[in-house]
Amino acid sequence: MAIEVRLPTVLRPAAGGQANVSVEGETIGEILKALAKDFPGLGTQVLSLDGSLHRFVNVYLNDDDVRYLDQLDTKVIEGDVISILPAVAGGSN
Amino acid sequence: MLIISQMFLDEMIAHAIREYPLEACGLISGEKDLVKGFYKTRNDAASARIYTVNPLDYLKADRDAEKNGASIIGVVHSHTHSDAYPSPTDVAQAPDPAWHYILVSLKHTDPILRSFTIIDGNIVEESVVRLNC
Questions:
Q1: Which domains can be identified in chain A, with CATH numbers?
Q2: Which residues of B touch A63 (CB under 8 A)?
Q3: What is the ipTM metric for this complex?
Q4: Would you call A88 and B82 a contact, using CB atoms and an 8 Å cutoff?
């Protein structure tokens, strides 16, 4: 099953400039691993070396943060859209 | 260079003042140097010293920008008690070398707004071209 994955501007160069890619998989984890296989430069920015979700990245399944679902085990269905967003933070600290 | 309407600049400063004493944050959309939208976002850190853009607000802004044929091209945040210049925290956490980083300082009586690029840790101030619309 192919699922649409929306990429932020910072990850697009690693995916040939594409804003949206179509990736096969049944869970968020399968899709992100397939994405990392298709675009190796992108994978290291989304997944940590141990295969977990990178702490500076937020992944949404439609309107839900996957960290509050079943994380990488979250199942997807046809028509779902996955959005990858970098964590945006800073401050005068 | 950042090309932006005076209306958006006024909205950014108003947002910073409204959120004071906490740091305010938001996102800009557009194409390269031209700003086409400004989105106020919640600061999940709710702090006077740090900010974290609420990710759901980011998602909604990203979708709206795409609907309008644009992309998120930068972030805005306020410094309540320091200058309008990226802090080491800002530099360390800058997510995208192609983005514009807009700072609003409320340190002095009159707010000061400046814009920067942050590439590989190097901060470069850019000119802000104001459009009267």
A1: 2-86 (3.10.20.30)
A2: 56, 59
A3: 0.91
A4: no
What are the CA-CA distances from residue B7 to residues A40, B1, B34, B127 (Å)? 41, 18, 14, 17
Q: Which domain holds residue B74?
A: 2-131
CATH assignment at residue B126 = 3.40.140.10
Express each pLDDT in B24-57 by its tens digit. Answer: 999 999 999 999 999 999 999 999 999 999 999 9
Question: Would the CB atoms of B95 and A87 count as touching at under 8 Å?
Answer: yes
Q: In the sheet that A2-6 helps form, which strands lie side by side, from edge to edge?
A: A20-24, A2-6, A81-86, A57-61, A64-65
Are A91 and B49 within 8 A, CB to CB? yes
Whether the pLDDT of residue B5 is over 80: the answer is yes
Joined tokens for residue B130: 């104001």
Report how many domains make up chain B: 1
Q: For A40-70, what is each residue's pLDDT tens digit?
A: 888 888 999 898 999 889 999 999 999 999 9
Nearest by CB to A92, from B49, B52, B58: name it: B49
Please answer yes or no on whether A92 and B80 come within 8 Å at the CB atom: yes
